[in-house]
Amino acid sequence: MAEHLELLAEMPMVGRMSTQERLKHAQKRRAQQVKMWAQAEKEAQGKKGPGERPRKEAAGRGPPKQVVFPPSVVLLEAAARNDLEEVRQFLGSGVSPDLANEDGLTALHQCCIDDFREMVQQLLEAGANINACDSECWTPLHAAATCGHLHLVELLIASGANLLAVNTDGNMPYDLCDDEQTLDCLETAMADRGRCGGAAVGGLPVALPLSLPP
């Protein structure tokens, strides 16, 4: 995440921005935070070595205690490594695909950030909540759209992802996307759904008013 001093240095520039420019700036900041968080997680996992061999226990002492991680940690860690077989084993043993970390991030969120299509497909087939929200109400579709992963956006839409999900900043996945092809995909899907259940204005669906008798 951005350092405090860096944010302070940006304040004069942000103060000169228009409302729309500020919104775009905030969106980019959040996208950077998501990507940097994912990178930090990967680096943290990479620094974990096999561990030191345990020292010989003194006479009369039992075996050394083992650290046991909660299912949410092991599932997200395996998903972040894109280990399809290990995740399949966890899911097959009854581990829920919707387990989340302290930020509300699920394995599906993580794989949509990392662009792991096969893992996303596997999680969806295991019943993962496609509209799961993290602590800031970001759904997997928000993550995939922000990162510009077109094929994942297409997969999530085809699987029934909520195109109109709003995060805590009031942004839909469409609002956070800068990739032209991905934007076109989202806009087309929103227009298509609008034609089925509402009107489309400027490519965005809106609810139709109820007809009242005269």
Structural overview:
By secondary structure, the chain is an all-alpha fold. It has a domain at 20-42 and 68-173: Ankyrin repeat-containing domain (Serine Threonine Protein Phosphatase 5, Tetratricopeptide repeat). It has helices spanning 4-15, 19-47, 71-80, 84-92, 107-114, 117-125, 140-147, 150-158, 180-197; strands spanning 199-201, 204-206. The chain has a two-stranded antiparallel ribbon. α5 packs antiparallel against α6 (117-125). The protein is globular and about 55 Å long. The protein starts with a helix and ends in an 8-residue tail after the last strand.
In short:
The protein has helices spanning 4-15, 19-47, 71-80, 84-92, 107-114, 117-125, 140-147, 150-158, 180-197, and strands at 199-201, 204-206.
User: Which CATH C-level class of the domain at 20-42 and 68-173 is it?
Assistant: Mainly Alpha
Q: What gap, in angstroms, lies between the N and C termini?
A: 57 Å
| Nearest-integer average pLDDT | 78
**For the record, what is the CATH homologous superfamily label of the domain at 20-42 and 68-173?**
Ankyrin repeat-containing domain
- Residue stretches low in confidence (pLDDT < 50, at least 5 long) are 50-59, 198-214
Structural class: mainly alpha
Please describe the biggest sheet, giving its number of strands, its sense, and whether it closes into a barrel: 2 strands, antiparallel
Strand content: under 5%
Tally of contiguous helical segments: 9
Indicate the radius of gyration in whole angstroms: 22 Å
CATH architecture of the domain at 20-42 and 68-173: Alpha Horseshoe
H/E order of the elements?
A: HHHHHHHHHEE
| CATH fold category name of the domain at 20-42 and 68-173 | Serine Threonine Protein Phosphatase 5, Tetratricopeptide repeat
* Share of helix, binned: 40-55%
